[in-house]
């Protein structure tokens, strides 16, 4: 069997390890437009921050490809899929044949049209290792940095560079930071923490016009900068499957086997849609754990095994200078709230199930809440009064504790 994987990040690694659970001999070829050994993209901010280095960023050890008998074609881009001839075409006109194909092309930065943006010389995205390395070369202790976007990517960039530059200002059209994962209260706490570190925010505002080193905001403010980072959002890379005739909505459509609508073509990771069980909707869930599990599911099925990924939920675990945030599920249902000056917890209970949660500051044992959502555990079967105040395994029955600790099933 000849397996080809487009992409070299989390979903691709999951696929390789899934294939090798079933087929130890088939040929695996990984093709990526990045030239690096597989690495953990969330760590690029820590690389700039100085909390990690290139070696420790690797998602698997140096012998990973050799150990799994993987051939790599790095620094080359797949430009099309010929699903009738069962081959992919590279940007150097060469082709690679496949029996089973995984599309794990991830996402790319979304840069909205902004007047004068082309006149800005030092402008960057912040999604890949190359982005971080290029930004690192452009900044110094005298740099005034403007970040457009107060979401996950923009604020992780802020964390990475804050101690290496003169100033950082952040602009976002939303009324709060991290609007996709935090409510007003949680966002306000993280914002205050970052403001105390020296970050200045301009919220409910946007850039009307750029000059080479100045941003004119619609609200009237003028911000001088030396370096610009655009982190407004991302778009899934769906074009290869769409142009090959596969079903695509916002993301590539897959089933619980991670298979697309095209024969022998699978997809996993940030380029796909999957079924969010916390709200019963098909959505893009651009999250590392989901990407790995989708990829592993694809790999097992590509190799002739039988696996399903049917417990996808949104999850985010993020920290800024040691101040942590974890969220999961959907924010729908009856609310239970605990708050101090530095910590915040909100649980959402719908019917007899935990639907979602937000935790800021104190995130110990948050995985228990995540498990309740993913497994759809009836709250009547546990001591929820205990668990909502202090998540711990003692709230479960002896039998369930054994399962969660890796014992009897």
Question: Main traits of this protein?
Answer:
409 residues, alpha/beta, 5-stranded parallel β-sheet, 25 strands
Structure write-up:
With 409 residues, the protein is an alpha/beta fold. The protein has helices at residues 10-22, 44-49, 64-67, 129-138, 152-161, 184-196, 239-243, 288-302, 366-374, 384-389, 398-404; strands spanning 2-6, 27-32, 70-74, 78-82, 87-90, 95-97, 100-103, 107-110, 123-124, 144-148, 167-172, 200-203, 207-211, 214-217, 222-224, 227-230, 233-236, 265-267, 274-276, 281-283, 315-320, 323-329, 334-339, 344-350, 353-360. The strands form 7 sheets. A 5-stranded parallel β-sheet has the order 3-2-1-7-18. Strands 9-16-10-11-12 form a 5-stranded parallel β-sheet, covered by helices on one side. A 5-stranded antiparallel β-sheet has the order 21-22-25-24-23. Helix 1 runs parallel beside helix 8. The longest helix is centred in the last third of the chain and has 15 residues, at 288-302. It is globular. The model has no long low-confidence stretch (mean pLDDT 94).
Q: Say how many strands there are.
A: 25
Identify the overall geometry.
globular
Give Rg in angstroms.
22 Å
Overall average pLDDT = 94
């Amino acid at each position: 069997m000849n397996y080809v994987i487009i992409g070299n990040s989390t979903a691709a690694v999951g696929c390789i390890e899934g294939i090798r659970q079933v087929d130890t001999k088939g040929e695996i070829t990984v093709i990526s437009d990045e030239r690096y050994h597989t690495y953990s993209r969330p760590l690029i901010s820590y690389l700039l921050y100085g909390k990690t280095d290139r070696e420790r960023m690797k998602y698997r050890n140096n012998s990973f490809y050799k150990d799994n008998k993987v051939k790599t074609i790095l620094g080359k881009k797949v430009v099309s899929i010929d699903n009738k001839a069962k081959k992919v075409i590279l940007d150097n006109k060469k082709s690679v044949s496949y029996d089973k194909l995984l599309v794990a092309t991830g996402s790319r930065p979304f840069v909205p049209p902004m007047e004068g943006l082309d006149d800005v010389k030092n402008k960057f995205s912040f999604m890949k290792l190359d982005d971080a390395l290029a930004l690192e070369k452009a900044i110094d202790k005298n740099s005034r940095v403007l970040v457009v976007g107060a979401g996950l990517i923009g604020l992780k960039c802020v964390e990475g560079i804050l101690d290496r530059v003169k100033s950082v200002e952040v602009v976002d059209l939303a009324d709060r930071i991290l609007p996709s994962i935090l409510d007003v209260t949680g966002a306000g706490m993280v914002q205050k923490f970052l403001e105390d570190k020296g970050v200045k925010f301009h919220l409910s505002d946007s850039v009307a016009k750029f000059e080479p080193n100045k941003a004119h905001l619609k609200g009237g403010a003028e911000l001088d900068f030396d370096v610009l980072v655009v982190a407004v959002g991302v778009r899934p890379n769906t074009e290869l499957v769409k142009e090959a005739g596969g079903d695509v909505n916002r993301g590539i459509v897959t089933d619980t086997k991670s298979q697309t609508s095209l024969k022998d073509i699978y997809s996993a990771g940030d380029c796909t849609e999957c079924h969010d069980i916390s709200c019963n909707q098909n959505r893009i869930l651009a999250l590392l754990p989901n990407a790995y599990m989708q990829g592993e599911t694809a790999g097992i099925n590509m190799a002739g095994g039988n696996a399903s990924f049917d417990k996808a939920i949104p999850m985010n675990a993020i920290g800024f200078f040691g101040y942590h945030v974890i969220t999961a599920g959907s924010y729908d249902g009856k609310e239970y709230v605990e708050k101090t000056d530095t910590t915040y917890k909100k649980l959402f209970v719908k019917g007899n199930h935990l639907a979602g949660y937000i935790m800021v500051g104190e995130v110990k044992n948050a995985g228990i809440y995540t498990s309740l959502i993913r497994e759809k555990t009836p709250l009547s079967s546990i001591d929820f009064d205990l668990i909502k105040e202090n998540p711990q395994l003692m709230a479960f029955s002896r039998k369930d504790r054994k399962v969660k600790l890796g014992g009897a099933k």
